[in-house]
Design brief:
A 7-stranded mixed sheet has the order 8-9-16-15-11-10-14, sandwiched between helices. Strands 1-7-6-5-3-4 form a 6-stranded parallel sheet. The protein has a two-stranded antiparallel sheet with strand order 12-13. The radius of gyration is 27 Å and the shape is globular. The chain starts with a strand and ends in an 11-residue tail after the last helix. Helix 11 crosses helix 15, helix 16 runs parallel beside helix 18 (474-487) and helix 21 (550-561) packs antiparallel against helix 22. It is an alpha/beta fold and 704 residues long.
Length: 704
């Protein structure tokens, strides 16, 4: 087999988990031109897996593109779990069919021979995958084999593949072997994860030896290197000192330097192009920079879907009342939230009350259009567009005027699609609202907002009252106690013991709380700056009383009204909420690193000078000459950046993502947010509990 670098990725963004979603329209030219977006560039890289097969079949033709009239060559896609998850948010069934993929199967599944069709393999470079590939070659399952590894294949694995193929009695047609450098998940144009769960607990486990820590750091750096290669940039690295972030940055710096020494290497175009003068910043943060945000009950649509409905790979599953054909009881429905959903694109980052209003508005507009069409067509004959399929409409053509029928038929597909999305978001919003009411999440939101943003006063009595309240799950109350412990400085021993005893009485595992107490002094020193609720524009009112004022009244009204009938509540909210410029710690620190003149105005440095803030972040410049051996962090130069990637080692969430995106967008900057994994608050509590217990991740789960 021959090994070469892949075609340079060109594009990036999310669609849906394992390609079971409906077809979406192709990416717009504006999306395709988004050069600083892992999603669009990764998507184009994946499409190149299939178009390269078409070019081999007919070098003179262009196949399978969005505007191509030439049919693509039929092919089979074989992937492992890693490759499947990478493809899932980017390419759906319709996209794969457009690219000529007739079947897509796991490499571990039993597969029948299709000897006249080529196969595209997309999988991690592991010994197990390579051995299975050699078995497929030996069985002659396909006419040709296009092998694509998600990251750089180790030499020993490549040699295993070569030796295995050479030993076969009938050599297969191995057309090519590529290192694709795509081992990360792109979920939004400006959001990616490395799909490395439980990283925080693993890197902070005192029982891990140096070799195990090095393995974790290497895995993070390797996947992050894939992001850099996909973006086709040579960034300037800044990393929070004395922790995992600096270790990852050092390793990543070495990987980039090695490639820069190779003529026509992976970064050849990034170095030679005009874009080389506009290098982005890659800022690496340790999760310890802001622990409270990981437990916060947010109020935005996307973060609520992730927190309450366990959204993964842009897919959520909700329970709905069983329909007529489903019998009584509860039925589970799975929905894909992707770029084909205009409502999701518009409202994902908005506060939940605004989303409820938008659902009602969209439903009203839909009904009005249907009534107008029915009235126009019905003036000639019996016609109801909501109850009629296109085939039935054609049958009515004899009794309905041709013009009216043509208009109705033209409107039917679009209206049907809109109605499907309205029903989808009505069900999701209803499922979210049910949990808000059942668990009293509005009360937790208010208390946590006061603690994290440090506006008003939240005393111990109010926190204890919430912990003893009948509403709220055990996990909700542990999260509130954790935020109180991490945000309130100098908690005395009696108070800490009272918090712990209250949680014990409701059956909670207090290991996570014990861990928070052990790190609270460090967290307090890092978190002296005000913090917003990440992604939500806070309400500014004349009252500082967190218990009774505007927020409490608003949230109670929302819960009482439900999903429908929220128009008045939402209108009142729009009139009374005053957006503020608060930013979370990652967002404000990133802004300060991108432009040193903002260090004081952003509030991140908490009174420190810009130089002191920058000294807390090591500098690694892969294009700068080495200074006496290994790369050493130095003080930052006084330079500004127009583009940046904020990456959190130890896990992130949608709350922080929205805050980084919104705050930096106001400054006119292009920013991508990434993390080792997107972690739900419940999962992160379990990580801390396991860490404190000392038995490794996965133990010490908090009761629900």
């Amino acid at each position: 087999p021959r090994r070469s670098n892949p075609p340079r990725p060109l594009a990036h963004h999310p669609d849906s988990p394992p390609f079971l979603a409906a077809a979406a329209a192709p990416s717009s030219p504006m999306e395709a031109a988004s050069s600083f977006s892992p999603f669009f560039r990764q998507k184009a890289a994946l499409e190149s897996l299939f178009t390269s097969v078409d070019l081999d079949a007919d070098p003179s033709a262009s196949h399978g593109g969005a505007s191509s009239q030439t049919p693509a060559t039929w092919k089979v896609l074989v992937y492992d779990a890693v490759g499947r998850d990478i493809i899932a948010p980017l390419l759906r069934v319709a996209d794969l069919r457009r690219l000529g993929v007739t079947l897509h199967m796991m490499v571990t599944s039993a597969r029948q021979a299709i000897v006249d069709v080529p196969a595209v393999y997309f999988m991690a470079p592991t010994e197990a995958n390579v051995k299975r590939l050699v078995e497929d070659c030996g069985k002659g399952l396909y006419s040709a084999y296009y092998v694509n590894f998600t990251s750089s294949v180790p030499r020993v694995v490549l040699e295993t593949f070569a030796d295995g193929v050479a030993a076969l009695s009938s050599p297969p047609d191995v057309a090519r072997v590529f290192d694709m450098y795509t081992e990360f998940l792109s979920l939004e144009p400006d959001l990616f994860t490395l799909n490395l769960p439980e990283t925080y607990s693993r890197l902070n486990n005192p029982k891990l030896n140096d070799a195990e820590i090095e393995t974790q750091i290497e895995a993070i750096a390797t996947s992050l290197f894939s992001v850099v290669v996909t973006l086709d940039v040579v960034p300037v690295l800044r990393a929070q000192r004395d922790g995992p972030a600096e270790m990852v940055a050092r390793k990543l710096d070495e990987k980039i330097r090695e490639q820069l020494l190779i003529p026509n290497g992976l970064f050849a175009s990034a170095v030679s192009s005009a874009a080389a003068l506009d290098r982005p910043l890659l800022a690496l943060f340790d999760r310890s920079v802001d622990l409270p945000v990981m437990f916060h009950h947010s109020w935005t649509y996307q973060s609520l879907a992730h927190d309450l409905l366990a959204m993964k790979l842009n897919r959520v599953t909700v329970e709905t009342a069983g329909g007529a054909g489903e019998g009584r009881g509860v039925a589970k429905k799975t929905y894909d939230l992707d770029r084909g959903d205009a409502f999701w694109l518009e409202n994902a980052g908005k506060p939940f009350p605004k989303v409820a209003e938008a659902v009602e508005t969209a439903l009203g507009a839909y009904r009005k259009e249907v009534e107008d069409i029915n009235r126009t067509a019905g003036a000639v004959g019996s016609f109801n567009i909501e109850e009629m399929s296109p085939e039935e409409a054609v049958k009515n053509s004899k009794t309905t005027s041709s013009d009216s029928l043509a208009r109705a038929l033209a409107a039917l597909p679009e209206l049907t699609k809109r109605k499907q999305f309205i029903d989808l978001h009505t069900n999701i919003a209803s499922a979210i609202l049910d949990q808000i009411k059942e668990r009293g999440l509005d009360s937790f939101y208010q208390l946590e907002d006061g603690l994290i943003s440090r506006t008003g006063s939240v005393d111990k009595a109010k926190v204890l009252q919430a912990l003893r309240d009948i509403r709220g799950s055990v996990n909700d109350k542990v999260r509130l106690a954790l935020i109180y412990t991490l945000c309130v400085p100098d908690i005395d021993r009696p108070t800490a013991e009272e918090l712990r005893a209250t949680l014990v009485r409701i059956g909670a595992n207090t290991k996570a709380l014990e861990y928070a107490r052990s790190v609270s002094s460090f967290s307090t020193s890092m978190n002296t700056a005000p913090l917003s609720t990440a992604g939500l524009k806070q309400a500014s009112t004349s009252s500082n009383d967190i218990d009774g004022g505007f927020t409490a009244g608003l949230m109670s009204s929302i819960v009482d009204h439900g999903v429908k009938g929220l128009t008045q509540v939402a209108n009142n909210m729009s009139k009374l909420i005053i957006p503020t410029e608060k930013a979370g710690r990652v967002a404000s620190t990133l802004n300060a690193l991108m432009d040193p003149t903002t260090a004081h105005s952003s509030g991140t440095s908490a009174g420190h000078s810009a130089g002191e803030l920058h000294n807390r972040f090591a500098l690694f410049d892969p294009k700068a000459p080495r200074r006496g051996g290994p790369t050493q962090p130095t003080n930052a130069p006084a330079r500004t950046f127009r583009r940046a990637v904020a990456f959190v080692v130890g896990g992130g969430n949608y709350v922080e993502y929205h805050n980084v995106r919104d705050h930096c967008a106001r400054a006119g900057r292009s920013v991508v947010y990434g993390a080792t994994d997107l972690v739900t608050s419940e999962a992160f509590v379990e990580e801390l509990a396991a860490l404190q217990q000392g038995s490794g991740a996965g133990a010490g789960a908090v009761g629900k």
